[in-house]
Amino acid sequence: MDKILKYYPFVEPGAGVDAECIFCKGKGCKICGGTGWMELAGAGMIHPTVLKNGGIDPNEYSGIAWGAGPERMAMLKYGIENIRAFKSGDLKFLEKF
Ligand SMILES: [Zn+2]
């Protein structure tokens, strides 16, 4: 796993979980953006400015934002090279499973 502390622009602090890219074995390729890692999930405390801009008083409220990428986990498990395939509606892609 890569470092757990992450930078996301709308949270502070941020944390995330990465897995080594199975396509390049951590060397870096176009699928992982040259990093050697694929981000699986991220989270963090919502930045007060984000709350304020949404009309929420950051002195009264706080929040946690999080998200996970099940498509990324499926990419790693099944060796799918392009994440866009999940949203393509292509039956040939779906019939593989
Ligand atoms: Zn890679």
Outline of the structure:
The protein has 97 residues and is of the alpha+beta class.
Total of DSSP H or I helical runs spanning 4+ residues: 3
Q: Main sheet?
A: 4 strands, antiparallel
Bound molecule types: zinc ion
- Rg, rounded, reads 17 Å
Measure the end-to-end span.
28 Å
Strand content: 25-35%
Strand order of the largest sheet: 1-2-3-4
Helix content: 10-25%
The coarse overall form would be elongated
Uncertain runs are none
SSE layout:
Layout (H helix, E strand, L loop, with lengths): L4 E2 L4 E10 L16 E10 L1 H6 L10 E5 L1 H9 L12 H4 L3
Antiparallel strand pairs: 1-2, 2-3, 3-4
The structure holds zinc ion.
The site of zinc ion has 8 residues, from loops.
Task: Please provide a written account of the structure.
The protein has one domain. With 97 residues, it is of the alpha+beta class. Helices cover 20% and strands 28% of the residues. The two termini are 28 Å apart. A hairpin with a 4-residue loop joins strand 1 (5-6) and strand 2 (11-20). Strands 1-2-3-4 form a 4-stranded antiparallel sheet. The chain is built from 3 helices and 4 strands, in the order βββαβαα. The protein is elongated, with a radius of gyration of 17 Å. Residues 21, 23-24, 28-29, 31-32, 36 line the site of zinc ion.
